[in-house]
Amino acid sequence: MDTHRWWRDAVIYQVYVRSFLDSTGDGIGDLAGVRAGLPYLKKLGVDGIWLSPFYPSPQHDHGYDVADYRDVDPVFGDLAEFDLLVGAARRLGVKVLLDIVPNHCSSEHPWFREALAAPPGSPQRARFHFADGRGPGGAEPPNNWHAMFGGPAWTRVTEPDGRAGQWYLHMFTPEQPDWNWRNPEIAADFDRTLRFWLDRGADGFRIDVAAGLFKHPELPDSPDPEADARTRDSVNPLAWSQPEVHEVWRHWRAVCEEYTRRDGQERLLVGEVSVPTAREHARYVRPDELHQAFFFDLLGAPWNADAFRKVISEAMQDIAGTGSTVTWVLNNHDQVRTVTRYGEPTPQGSGLGTARARAAALLMLALPGAAYVYQGEELGLPEVVDLPDDVLTDPIFRRTGSRARIRDGCRVPLPWSGQASPFGFTSGAEGAAPWLPQPEWFAEHATDRALADTRSFWHLYRDGLQLRASLPQLGEGTLSWLETTPDVLAFVRADDLVCAVNFGTAPVPAPASGTPLLASGPCPPGVLPGSTAAWWISGS
Questions:
Q1: Whose CB has fewer CB within 10 Å in the chain, the N or C terminal residue?
Q2: CA dist., res. 302 & res. 234, Å (int)
Q3: CA torsion angle for 501, 502, 507, 510 (degrees, to 10)?
């Protein structure tokens, strides 16, 4: 892999730190646990890791409410432990990306506390979106926007003299006030944050809510106030994807390139960009902006050959055409896991969901560009759909009282070994219980069992990653679609490497013959079983 352009076809493993591996016995994963797991990830074959936020935080949204952007929360370790992690990763040749949260901070951030203590119109309040309310006594919010996690996007404050006062904007929860990026202090402070972590060896950043940051300067009413309440996608055009945001990414790209010039190692910016079309997505990955942005359309596509072909074709046309590469993803910490999403919503998933998830993984790894794998994906973990209400921590549940769209089920701590909880996740017999309960059936997906079974998800991912690294026609490049039967999606890459997926349930003739390389399930010669993907070198 070209170290200067390593990100273009990299496979990055998303580490949700609090659920990866606990080194202290408190039931919460930490940076030392990530360091201990690095040899496992190196053996799997990934090129880098993306760490979820580990900064000081009251954890109202598990670290996405940041109280200090330039330190480590004691629950996860300290800066010395971060340095050890980076050093260990460097020795193994594994890149380290950090999750940065520029749209909002914690209500416990010192600047927001200063804003609450300051009067209306003060410089301290100008760092956020404070506004007078509407109606008699200013008792109604300044506009009709809804928060992404439910309820209004505004909270009223009590002024220092005890009177009901202004309102502040939070597009997620009241504990996450939005920064006012029209204030130059914000850009300057994030510049300091980028350099702080780059100086400590970070290889780049995953950017949370990368289409956010700027709001319409007049904060007018939305023509569709229920939009953000219906979906987590960024659909309020007054609060998302304002044109000024692109200047931020141009500046951040320039900062990263400054560091690249020092040692030739390119630093990566990958954005969480939720926009309606691939064409709009492409605006974020122009040559002087973000290197990459997650393409969520594949994750959101129904299990259907036509749907997958449509989103892949649009991405290749609109995103790859910018000179960037598409950043494919099937799972992450906000979405129902593929094993459950593609099958029946039973506590342990279903055989159909498992087969489809295996096939989708092989398809993703065959596509041109980069891929991100969410922890536990390589173990075939289903979603934990039956967590009791009293253990749920997702602010969506707390804000709405509804289990719809909650994210705890994909964040249950990983099973590493053994037959019972904590499955090796937390150290010591006297360790605290994992922060979310693990179901008994996690034993079937434990890492030690997966490594011992050559038919497991883990071996499918490892073999796919090894082939991807060894075959120059995978990663970079283009694809050409092949003529197939209606339920089959097939394409050819350079040097006649073919990937085919049968989205149906009945076996069909394989669309080409040749040298088999890898299949997601049993695949007789000349036959492509239902819900199966296969790679081979065409004999034509």
A1: C
A2: 20
A3: -40
Helix (H) or strand (E) holding 500: strand 497-502
- What is the Cα–Cα distance from 61 to 44, expressed in whole angstroms? 30
CA distance linking residue 214 with residue 216, whole number of Å: 7
> What does the block give as tokens for 327?
């950043």
pLDDT digits (tens, 9 = 90+) for 230-244: 554 556 889 999 999
Model-level pTM? 0.95
pLDDT by residue (tens digit) across 190-213? 999 999 999 999 999 999 999 999
Using only the alpha carbons of the chain, give its radius of gyration: 23
Nearest to 459 by CA among 44, 42, 2: 44
Q: Which amino acid is at 395?
A: P
- Tokens for 533? 């993907």
**CA–CA gap between residue 169 and residue 141 (Å, rounded):** 9
Measure the CA angle with vertex 272, ends 45 and 296; round to 5°: 75
β-partners of residue 178 are 104
Main-chain dihedrals φ then ψ at residue 219, nearest 5 degrees: 50, 55
> What is the distance between the alpha carbons of residues 375 and 391, in angstroms, rounded to a whole number?
21
**For residue 287, is pLDDT > 70?**
yes
Q: Which of 120, 92, 251, 272 lies closest to 184, judged by CA?
A: 251
The catalytic site residues sit at 208, 258
